[in-house]
């Protein structure tokens, strides 16, 4: 092969089979594999720091309320508490979890737009008095608690470009705001803020920018309310298979739009995925192997009923690669990665090209902290993967990649 062809082959190979694990310190990964039986997930607390600080730097002055639903591991919550984070709660279970970790109610907001009375009571008993509502029936539930609560009204902004459009299910139309505010005022219930969530894994900041602008306009029109907060929700994206904007670039136009807020209005955000997704990887191994037609099927010891459940519920497709070093210019075979359960839907990757693997080989899935273990099941009586907590598995030289 002449030099030019060789170069082309190498470049092409690099592009089509990028080294998914290049950011990691492979020696640390190998050490973990030697110590723990697969499948297991690795929660990297240094990465929690890194993501939290990056988002805080990109949204100066904004109070970050970590959305527990994306990943509620106590060690992650404790680390965020030590960083000064606030918390976004939605259930009694989440209230009790943060309470058990020494977090105070006034460091939290309760953002579930639909609640049972006992959920309101439990949150209040914990000391959390800020709740989200998005309709009149929900508002009426707070009449007995007038004087004790501060309400934030959630507005719906539909988003086609978010991977998960949350405004389909929750949020009122902007035009409904005056009626909700009026009923609150008639009953002596304090309305203090507006909130929205333009959808999780939002690929462009423009929906958030438009939602900020519309919310500010609504606040200015409804000047009978003493507005204290605008809550811009979650949505901040991470790279799975596709590249996304660096967080500073994603947030810059949002910050610019926030500059028009009336004086004295504080800004909240409720990030989940951005903090939790990059903080966890999953380590799985090949249990079985079969050639079926043109493809080699590898049967792994975890799949979409376990740690990879986000492929079903969160529409995510995780970058995945073998741990053993491979030759990027070598042979790659059309392969299928299947989970262990008896269900045929349990397939992690259908059209993946991989170097030949053997039974016992290890694969690593990246960006697996958000909406993964949170929705994992124990179907077929396979236990959920355990979570190993570490301080740093990233290679300091490539961490910024
Ligand atoms: C009310 C609320 N806040 C925050 C989040 C977290 O969103 P994300 O993971 O996109 O940051 C969600 C996600 O479902 C949510 O429903």
Automatic annotation (TrEMBL):
From what organism does this protein derive? Thiomicrorhabdus immobilis
Q: Which domain of life is it from?
A: Bacteria
* Annotated protein name in UniProt: ornithine decarboxylase
Matches recorded under Gene3D superfamilies: Alanine racemase, Lyase, Ornithine Decarboxylase, Chain A, domain 1
Pathway, per Swiss-Prot/TrEMBL? Amine and polyamine biosynthesis; putrescine biosynthesis via L-ornithine pathway; putrescine from L-ornithine: step 1/1
Lineage here is: Bacteria, Pseudomonadati, Pseudomonadota, Gammaproteobacteria, Thiotrichales
Query: Domain named Orn/DAP/Arg decarboxylase 2 N-terminal: which ranges?
Result: 46-277
Q: What's a Pfam family in this record? A: Orn_DAP_Arg_deC
> What does this protein need as cofactor?
pyridoxal 5'-phosphate
């Amino acid at each position: 092969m002449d030099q030019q062809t060789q170069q082309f082959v190498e470049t092409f190979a690099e592009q089509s089979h990028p080294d998914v694990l290049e950011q990691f310190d492979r020696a640390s990964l190998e050490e973990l594999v030697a110590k723990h039986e697969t499948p297991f997930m690795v929660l990297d607390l240094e990465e929690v720091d890194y993501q939290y600080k990056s988002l805080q730097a990109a949204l100066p002055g904004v109070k970050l309320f970590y959305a527990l639903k994306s990943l509620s591991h106590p060690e992650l919550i404790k680390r965020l508490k030590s960083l000064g984070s606030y918390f976004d709660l939605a259930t009694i279970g989440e209230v009790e979890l943060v309470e058990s970790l020494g977090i105070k109610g006034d460091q939290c907001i309760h953002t579930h737009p639909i609640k049972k009375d006992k959920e309101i009571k439990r949150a209040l008993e914990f000391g959390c008095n800020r709740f989200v509502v998005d309709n009149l029936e929900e508002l009426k539930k707070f009449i007995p608690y007038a004087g004790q609560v501060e309400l934030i009204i959630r507005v719906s902004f539909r988003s086609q470009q978010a991977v998960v459009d949350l405004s389909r299910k929750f949020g009122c139309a902007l035009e409904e705001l005056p009626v909700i505010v009026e009923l609150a005022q008639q009953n002596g219930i304090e309305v203090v803020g507006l909130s929205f969530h333009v959808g999780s894994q939002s690929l462009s900041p423009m929906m958030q920018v438009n939602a900020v602008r519309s919310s500010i306009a609504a606040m200015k029109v409804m000047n009978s309310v003493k507005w204290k907060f605008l809550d811009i929700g979650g949505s901040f994206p991470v790279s799975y298979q596709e590249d996304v904007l660096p967080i500073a670039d994603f947030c810059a136009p949002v910050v610019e739009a926030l500059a028009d807020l009336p004086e004295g209005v504080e800004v909240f955000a409720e990030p989940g995925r951005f903090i939790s997704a990059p903080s966890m990887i999953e380590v799985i191994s090949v249990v079985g192997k079969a050639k079926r037609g043109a493809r080699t099927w590898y049967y792994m010891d975890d799949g979409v009923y376990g740690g990879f459940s986000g492929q079903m519920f969160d529409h995510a497709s995780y970058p995945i690669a073998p741990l053993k070093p491979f030759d990027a210019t070598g042979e790659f075979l059309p392969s299928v990665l299947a989970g262990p359960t008896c269900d045929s839907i349990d397939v992690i990757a259908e059209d993946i090209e991989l170097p030949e693997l053997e039974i016992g080989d290890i694969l690593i899935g990246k960006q697996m902290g958000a909406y993964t273990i949170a929705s994992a099941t124990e179907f077929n009586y396979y236990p959920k993967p355990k979570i190993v907590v570490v301080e740093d598995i990233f290679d300091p030289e490539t961490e910024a990649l």
